[in-house]
Description:
Elements: H1 8-29, E1 44-47, E2 55-59, E3 64-69, E4 72-77, E5 88-90, E6 93-95, E7 102-103, E8 109-111, E9 120-126, E10 129-133, E11 150-151
Antiparallel strand pairs: 1-10, 2-3, 3-4, 4-9, 4-11, 5-6, 6-7, 7-8, 9-10
Amino acid sequence: MAEGARTRRDALKAIGLCLAAGAGVWRFLTPRWGSRGRPVTSPISVAAEEVPQDGALVLPESGIAIVRQGTAWLALDLACTHLGCTVSANESGFACPCHGSRFSSTGEVMAGPAPNPLRRLKVEVERGTVRVFRCDDRRGERPGTAAEGIRG
């Protein structure tokens, strides 16, 4: 079984395949910071009675969850802080299907590899309507994780 001589073209193909594989692995292992903070020109509004008492209303099409605990309201961005996968709701809070991060119902990290809690969004409750803002429309800034829920 004689093997033919390797050509420069074969070497370049091998290098190209290695680079493509490396880029795929890099993409999988690095955070997707750009996926969070989807631009929204207007707030997301829902009726307050749609959010269960001491529970959460998950809006997957908007990538948010509105949480109501007693008289406190908060909204969470559903992008995992590890690699940006969309978390799903469960009995104890939220879970990331990609790498197993678990978050409490208030977005705090319960199990890694997520390094930070889920990002909290600005919430306003007025006249039976809950409005969630992905960014401050006046200045175009996104609220950080330190933003606190409000009392209704």
